[in-house]
Amino acid sequence: MKFLDTLFERQTRQLAQRSSRRGMLKSLGGLLVGGAAVPLLPVARASAAESAQRPQEEGDETACEYWRYCAIDGFLCSCCGGSANTCPPGTEMSPITWIGTCRNPVDGRNYVISYNDCCGKSVCGACLCQRDEGDRPPYRSDKTNDVNWCLGTSSAAYHCSTAVVVGVAFEDQ
Length: 173
Ligand code: ABN
Known about the structure:
Blueprint: H1 2-18, H2 21-53, E1 73-75, E2 92-93, E3 98-103, E4 110-115, E5 117-119, E6 128-130, E7 158-161, E8 164-168
Antiparallel strand pairs: 1-6, 2-5, 3-4, 4-8, 5-7
Bound molecules: benzylamine (ABN).
């Protein structure tokens, strides 16, 4: 036992002589900060790429004049507890949608907009907005917005409509 005590004591003293407390704290701090940053790197890159693709925007998404609503027909989810991108709590976004193309006034580019209806609650009733750009009569059901798109959802009850940017539209040559 005495032998082990002496051995540990000697090694601890040697270690203490070779290293300062400040140096040790510095290495420990570097390890902690570096270790925390490593998993963040791909996330930071992904979010930078995402914001590079996201259009610059201005305007009030609760107003019918908001640029994304150029081809909408419905109650704005942004007035019903959701947003232009998200459904209000307690409703479900329809996977089947009406698609339009709207010009973003900030960058002058055309974007494909998906008008996903939110389903599962009775009609919201606030901010009815009907702009209908590119709309066709209901005999072309794929080209009309005047349809309840609550299809493929657990409930067919229509509540409100979103306007999600899907991507940049092809420019006319
Ligand atoms: N797509 C909006 C909507 C829902 C129900 C009836 C007409 C239009």
